[in-house]
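Dear support,

Our group has been running a series of protein-ligand predictions, and this particular one with zinc ion is the one our PI (initials K.S.) wants archived with full inputs and outputs. We had some confusion internally about which version of the output was final, so please treat the block below as the authoritative record. The input we submitted was:
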Amino acid sequence: MPTELRRNRAKRRARALHFLNEDGMVACNPRDREAAHRAEAEGIATENQQAVTCRKCWAVIRRMDRLELPPYPRG
Ligand SMILES: [Zn+2]
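Confirmed final output from the archive:
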């Protein structure tokens, strides 16, 4: 895939909703408190599992709860 395309893709993905775990950390980056603050400040963090669109967070939720979730978020 050409670099240009990949960059555009990354941009579209930038608004993915991340999952905040019970420690208040983003599930895909649980050691980075700054990332959690940023995500909250930008309104791209949620505690609603059903609303998560970040694939990494999604994968963490799947592992955590062993839910019968599809491999990727909808949309
Ligand atoms: Zn995430």
